[in-house]
Design a protein that fits this description.
The chain is built from 18 helices and 13 strands. By secondary structure, it is an alpha/beta fold. The protein folds into two domains: 156 residues, no CATH class; 317 residues, Rossmann fold. The strands form two sheets. It has a nine-stranded mixed sheet, sandwiched between helices. A four-stranded mixed sheet has the order 2-1-4-3. α9 packs across α17 and α12 packs across α13. The radius of gyration is 25 Å and the shape is elongated.
Amino acid sequence: MTRCRNHWAAFLSGLALSGFAAPAQALEHLMLRMPFLETSVTINLGEAESASELIRSSPDLDDLQSASGGQLLDLISKIFLAPLPVETKAFLEGSTGQPLLEQALIAAADLVDLDGVDPDTSGRMLTDALVRAERNGQPNVLGFLRELPGDQASIDLSRVAVAANRLKANQEQGVALALAGPAETVTPSLRAPLKPSWTRQVVRLSVTHRPQLLRVLTLVPNGSANGRLVVISHGLWDDPESFEGWGEVLAAQGYTVLLPDHPGSDFSQQKAMLAGDRPPPGPEELRLRPLDVSALLDAVESGRLMKGRGLNTETVAVVGHSWGATTTLQLAGGVPTERKLKSHCSDLKDPERNLSWVLQCSWLSGINRAGIADQRVKAVVAVSPPLRLLFEPTSTTSLNSKVLLISGTRDWVVPSGPEAISPMRDTKAAQFGHRLVLVRGADHFSLRSFQGEDRPALVGPLLLAWINEQLGVNGVVSFRGGGWGDDQVDLVDVSNKL
């Protein structure tokens, strides 16, 4: 299956020169400022039609071309003359004025100054520039830049360094905690290849809160089922198949697993958005995603789904990744708040700011309707959730289930420092039975697991151990009993070290 897995990077690419209003005149100069080298490079956009003409018309580039032994020419061609994706204009036209696009443009505009032009984060200026570039027969980066307003744009590369250093700082504590160990021990039987012992089926379910049917991937044990139900919620622009490996580990141990496809923020929605057919996910999805999960539980309870399976719907586990992990925290009773969103989203210099804040800050207008707790949820595993700005700290004491938080120490989308360690430390969450496990060297996407992989999911035994313990299932492993580690990657419970 071909797709862009780095969802956030895909969404932000092409937006660096953004966030400014209607054109006054064509852009003529692009300046790259490098304060750390006490120099800058000016590119004269002019009328050049080729990379060699662009270099000859810009003395700074001409000097660099000589210094690079002629290798700059190929780089300039790739950067400035590469055709823009045909979907770019349609995407911007379909996304203009949407909160998620606006937040992305605000973040991107922090790196760029467009002289004498007022900010505009709607996306309209970008769309207009692309239309004019196409009309002039230059649907590439160079043609696009020429159609931007103002006389000169400047990019301060030191700001890129600041952002990189902030990301490093937001990861450092997690790296140190994971290195300090000890890593969890391994149960060999849980690291052996799985023998399929479940039935896989895709069903579609009508729900009252959405106009479309809800697509659900189901994994049902063939043999000795334990009567317990687990729901796995995918992240932004992803789908159930990205987490089927998690479900396989659970189904092999007797759990019935449901993996809903959240239609307002799944992979299909991403494709439609990039084609300009749908806008980015709106704040209403923050409310609709938990309702998707509750609707599944209602359907099982009423016999519309999994009829005759004898499943316990009063004590259920939910697992989620990224936005799906945020969904699990809402279901557990996390209380959403606008207070931190209002105070932090406008501060582009906030030391804890990270890429996930683009998404979190886009939820502001829907936050007051996002308290969607479900008392049937009694065990939660939240893997890499964006959460720092969303929940009141007092939620920790009133959750209807214990939460296991999992974070990779190299996660550059939802870094462990602000999004996992700080919330756990500030709320003293470990005192209430919640735990934080760090996965050494893992990034935002490497914790996922697809169907039929050669070895069981990296965090599969950990999910199993936590759910066994919280639902009172006497299984092969429990969280406190240990044995949920991996023989190739360190998993470290750092809850008591914060």
